[in-house]
Amino acid sequence: MQNKINIGLIGAGTVGSGAYKVLKENFAEIYRKTGKEIIVFALAEKDTKRAKEVADDKTLIFEDAFDLVKDKNIHIVVELIGGTGISKDLVEEAIKNNKHVVTANKALIAMHGEELVNLATKHNVNLCYEAAVAGGIPIVKAIREGLAANKIEWIAGILNGTTNYILTEMKENNLSFDVALKQAQELGFAEADPTFDIEGIDAAHKITILASIAFGIPINFKATHIEGISNLDQKDIIYAEELGYKIKLLGITKFNNDSVELRVHPTLIPEKRLVANVDGPMNAVLVQGDMVGPTLYYGAGAGAEPTASAVVADIIDLARNLELTGTNQIPILGFIKDEIQTKKILSIEDITSEFYLRLSMKNESGVLAKITQIFAEHSISIDAMVQKEIQEDDKVVDIILVTSIMIERDVNKIINEIEVLPESQNKAVKLRIEQLNR
What we know:
CATH topology of the largest domain: Rossmann fold
Strand content: 25-35%
């Protein structure tokens, strides 16, 4: 058995330097857990000056990462540069050179995971990606291994710390979205270009991966419905709270009558739910298994040390569980290859939910009667209705509705009929509600 394992680390940025630090500082502890000497044999980084600041003089420095992945002395390649361009080429080259690969790259797995898994299987190596979802929370292992005896029914998660921080500030400190975003950027919780976070793309990458390992379906990012928080009005956060809800950006996937729901959007959650009270830049994932019921996983979803913790955990798993000439017995996506089955991904219009609606209407008599008549004609009940307090000279009033469970297509028809009323002043605001108790 090989007692020394050489790591080739690609990227000396935040996560790369964090992984290097964990492997060096916890070397003795890792040896006690694996019986293997895990060495950072080489580090690839275009900025060689930065690489030398991260690594000691025992680590080889490569300016060209392709030289690293081809080096015959390296057993495991750790890709920590992100993106889906050169990182994909490097991972493919590493696999073709019979290297096991560890990555924290959620975009790469979400968009190209299927072909990379097939390539890894063909070359009899492992592709590990725990750090790609929810940072330091071991959610991939929890679903793929810890809950393997269960049929997973649904997953709902706060999977992006940036948006969770913004929503927390909008609620707690009565900030507008723009002000909360600027504050997040100043504190380092949001990038200079926050598009991937605030538009829900980052969370969509992650829930796409979780859906695959939960239900044994191909990774299908293109089928994921994505809505972000950039258009969320602070008043809806206030109104939701008055109704007993908190708004979170959730990644949601459900197995639904042999079809799958796969979606990311702002969601009203009852304030008594634990996940509704996860604030700031933290992540949380709620998983419903048919035997175990609901289980909740909470922790830091980003940052150098939490993400590095997950990266090194994958390295330790490889060191523990396999000879470096063969793959682990745990399937990369949790299901054996022949049992990965394509399922219909439901259109967002076909999902069922309760809905929060905010209608801006002229302050005229008979408006409520017209609205309730439209709902009655569609045989849809209203669970709650609130007309916000107004002054006599106010020309427009907000009317807040909470519907019973209904198909989204039907609520869209109702909204269209309300918006053509002469009393309607603006586009209706529609948000989905998840009770997370069934």
